[in-house]
Design the sequence.
């Protein structure tokens, strides 16, 4: 680990904040991501550049840029001794955070210079009762050109835990949260891929508040890494992957609820979600013998959920058929 600390321009009245940038095999984009971190106007700021044992030059670029950085922020560079995977990489970094508030960033995204300042301003405006803050984002392509300027996220800051569990929201690279959200409920499951569902869930579970900033504070790069690989997958394979990820998310939620002795209160909701995703897994695997009784059982218990799952499966797995159905539907309505 490299630890380059320089707090010369720290503002004593402001709380220390950690900007944690996670990367894996992102040498093509990591310089822009690090520049976004270094450009933050907020102080005092601890920047952690963390690499998950990349096979390319990602870690070397991190060390090079940290060594040459002349600015006011404290910069630390670390790397996993071996590839830890998404969730364990986050777990490792969370144990090294020195502040009580963490801003997340991905190695292929670019943060606006005012990102941390805007997040902290919003938190202080609510007297630090906010435990999780997320913002809107703009999507960019591999060359950095803007595809869509904002309008990606919706404001769901006023929702409570029951509403959230019915329709979780996401997009982790725009999140910031109080360390208590992680510390009080422990490490993420090692196979978790969607910490962005869990952070607001844990916030609400702990009785905290979620805030939303309707500004594009992050340039979110799409069609790269696993996002690009998933776009290229067979549609049914992508549907299978999505449902397996959701299964892990709801397993994590179930674990967290048990730790707070609230699992019985939300047992029916969790079981409903798990039933849907497990049915989706069977649908995508095309195991007809297993799928039929599961689907019939779910249809009897949760008709709307089953219809939604089938609609999603057809839309992803058979897009041409689904688009034709949509055109027929619009034609009938117009008549």
Sequence:
């Amino acid at each position: 680990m490299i630890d380059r600390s320089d707090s010369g321009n720290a503002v004593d009245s402001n709380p220390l904040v950690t900007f944690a940038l996670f990367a894996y095999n992102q040498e093509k984009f990591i310089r822009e991501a690090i520049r976004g971190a270094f450009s933050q106007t907020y102080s005092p700021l601890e920047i952690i550049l963390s690499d998950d044992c990349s096979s390319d030059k990602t870690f070397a670029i991190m060390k090079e840029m940290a060594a040459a950085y002349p600015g006011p922020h404290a910069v630390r560079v670390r790397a996993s001794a071996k590839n830890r995977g998404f969730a364990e990489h986050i777990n490792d970094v969370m144990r090294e955070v020195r502040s009580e508030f963490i801003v997340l960033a991905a190695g292929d995204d670019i943060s606006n210079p005012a990102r941390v300042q805007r997040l902290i301003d919003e938190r202080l405006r609510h007297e630090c009762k906010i435990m999780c803050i997320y913002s809107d984002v703009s999507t960019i392509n591999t060359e950095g050109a803007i595809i869509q300027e904002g309008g990606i996220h919706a404001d769901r800051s006023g929702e409570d835990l029951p509403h959230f569990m019915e329709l979780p929201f996401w997009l982790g690279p725009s999140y910031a949260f109080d360390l208590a959200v992680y510390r009080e409920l422990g490490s993420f499951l090692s196979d978790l891929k969607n910490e962005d569902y869990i952070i607001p869930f844990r916030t609400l579970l702990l009785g905290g508040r979620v805030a939303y900033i309707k500004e594009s504070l992050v340039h979110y790069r799409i069609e790269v890494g696993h996002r690009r690989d998933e776009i290229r997958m067979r549609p049914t394979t992508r549907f299978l992957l999505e449902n397996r990820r959701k299964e892990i998310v709801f397993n994590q939620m179930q674990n967290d609820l048990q730790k707070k002795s609230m699992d019985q209160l939300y047992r029916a909701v969790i079981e409903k979600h798990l039933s849907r995703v497990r049915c989706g897994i069977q649908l995508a695997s095309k195991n007809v013998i297993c799928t039929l009784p599961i689907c019939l059982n779910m249809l009897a218990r949760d008709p709307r959920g089953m219809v939604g799952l089938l609609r999603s499966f057809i839309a992803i797995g058979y897009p041409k058929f689904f688009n034709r159905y949509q055109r027929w539907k619009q034609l009938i309505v117009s008549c």
Q: What stands out?
A: The chain has 13 helices and ten strands. Residues 123 and 219 are 22 Å apart (CA to CA). The longest helix spans residues 235-259.
